[in-house]
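Open question from group meeting: does this chain pack into something compact, or does most of it stay loose? Before anyone orders reagents, we agreed to write out a predicted structure and look at it together. Recording both the input and the output here so the notebook holds the full record.
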Amino acid sequence: MTPTEPRLEAVFTAEVTVGAAIEAGGTAGLRRRIVPILGGAVRGPRLVGEVLTLGADWQLIEEEGAITRLVARYAMRVSDGTVITIVNRALRHGPAAVMARLAAGEAVDPALYYFRGAPSFEAPSGPHRWLSESLFVCSGARAPRAVVIDFYRVA
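Structure tokens returned:
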């Protein structure tokens, strides 16, 4: 018996508007930051809606700035009014010069750095319950005032 090979199904893209980072001090060689989530849009083959104006990215950044580990907690309201919460554990890293440009708020080609995550969703019973019953991965790109994230269901 051989397990089936996983494949990725595109679910949606979220364009998440973010606020200015709040520096939250350091610990054990890491810098802590909180980046407020201010809203955004959700568009895709399986979901359409809005990112709600609440939540944040909680980041730990190595002192050199080359690696950022983050946990984003936020919510979206999809077209039928259902509110779905998201917890996305992600990793962003790249060459020091590239990461310095991102930190300075520059637009940087996403091919120059690694930005991937493992989101999980909490959805109520009903038509969106499948979000709570599947595994997902995502790929991100950091713009000066937003994060663009493509979400995929592992099928």
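Observations to bring back to the group:
The helical segments are 96-103.
The longest helix spans residues 96-103.
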